[in-house]
Amino acid sequence: FTGKFYCYVPGIYFFSLNVHTWNQKETYLHIMKNEEEVVILFAQVGDRSIMQSQSLMLELREQDQVWVRLYKGERENAIFSEELDT
Description:
Blueprint lengths: L4 E2 L4 E11 L5 E7 L2 E8 L6 E11 L4 E6 L16
Organism: Macaca mulatta
Subcellular location: Secreted
Keywords: Secreted, Signal
């Protein structure tokens, strides 16, 4: 419900992120581990929409959190949400 993955069992976890980007808009996301950026997913503005994906493995301890942060750049983002979305 929070939009974050909470680790309760320490170990190595696999995460995969798939994003559809829209025409003439940029995509700029950070995959976060707690408050640290571990991966940046970026797509420049183009004439067509594309699919982007990023996969990674992270070693997590109990109480670690993994989440996706939308970075607000200079242009309009290809990804949007409303206040009610998680």
